[in-house]
Write a structure and sequence with these properties.
single chain; 274 residues; alpha/beta; 7-stranded mixed beta sheet
């Protein structure tokens, strides 16, 4: 008799309440999710999508535990035992800028936290920041379940003082949707509003198509002025704080196509304008 195949158990199907996963295993799963979602997006955008290949990708995503597993691994990385999340970088920058002591007449700063895995990342700033956390798949009743790219632009135009895109842009499979996300953020910010951007450092340090200088040029074209940046050589994360400003009026076509910035063994991360 043929042997019965055992159903595979998702590799992330462990205790969801603890951070017993090692940093290395968490990063491995997260990187694999990024690869699979990118391939999935590429196949869906082709006119002759290969149903068999799509099915294989979706099967592997399910075996990894689906989006819930990705969120859980990312949340584990934000635990206190791992040094906390990127919100600490943003909060410190805002404090250094003196925004915690801004005039009471102006009210609390309105922060839209895109890709929020926890509802209370900014709880220590509640007296001066009013946070709206949102994510594609909410893990808590206080987190709005919403695709940022599908938000009503007119309803949110010039509404937010701060928008946080921490490990969000790199999770979007389509390079042009990444650019559209930045365009929407600019539209939704108040004049002089702030955009917090966090990416894995290899996105700018080891990409064939994107360098830190290229990113800065792109942001300037969109109407963002860099206020702060932070990363360590050989580190894993890079952080930027931008202020909404006027575009530098350069032609946009240059940023709608890939331009090779480096040769050699590189990743293919890129942000393109729609």
């Amino acid at each position: 008799m043929p042997k019965t195949r055992k159903k595979k158990i998702p590799v992330t199907n462990a205790d969801k309440s603890s951070s017993s996963s090692t940093p290395a295993s968490s990063r491995t799963v997260i990187r694999r999710f990024h690869v699979l979602l990118k391939k999935q997006g590429q196949l869906k955008n082709t006119s002759s999508a290969n149903a068999e290949a799509l099915g294989e990708i979706e099967r592997e995503i399910d075996e990894l535990g689906g989006l819930a597993a990705y969120q859980r691994m990312s949340s584990i990385g934000q635990g206190n035992d791992r040094g906390g999340g990127s919100e600490k970088v943003l909060m410190q920058w805002l404090v250094d800028m003196g925004l915690r002591k801004r005039e009471e007449a102006k009210g609390k700063m309105r922060l839209l936290e895109v890709g929020a895995l926890k509802p209370d990342n900014y709880r220590t700033c509640m007296s001066w920041i009013d946070t709206t956390p949102m994510d594609l798949r909410s893990r808590h009743p206080a987190i709005i379940e919403q695709d940022f790219l599908l938000m009503d632009e007119d309803e949110n135009r010039s509404k937010w003082d701060i928008i946080s895109l921490s490990l969000v842009v790199n999770f979007v499979p389509d390079p042009r949707d990444r650019g559209r996300m930045l365009c929407l953020a600019h539209s939704m910010l108040v004049p002089d509003g702030l955009l917090f951007l966090a990416l894995p450092l290899p996105c700018v340090e080891n990409s064939r198509y994107l360098t830190s200088d290229r990113l800065q040029s792109l942001m300037n074209v969109l109407g963002f002025t860099e206020v702060q940046r932070k990363w360590k050589t050989g580190g894993k994360m890079a952080y930027w704080l931008y202020r909404k400003s006027e575009s530098d009026q350069k032609p946009l076509d240059e940023y709608r196509k890939k331009n090779v910035c480096r040769q050699g063994d590189r990743n293919n991360f890129v942000i393109l304008l729609p």
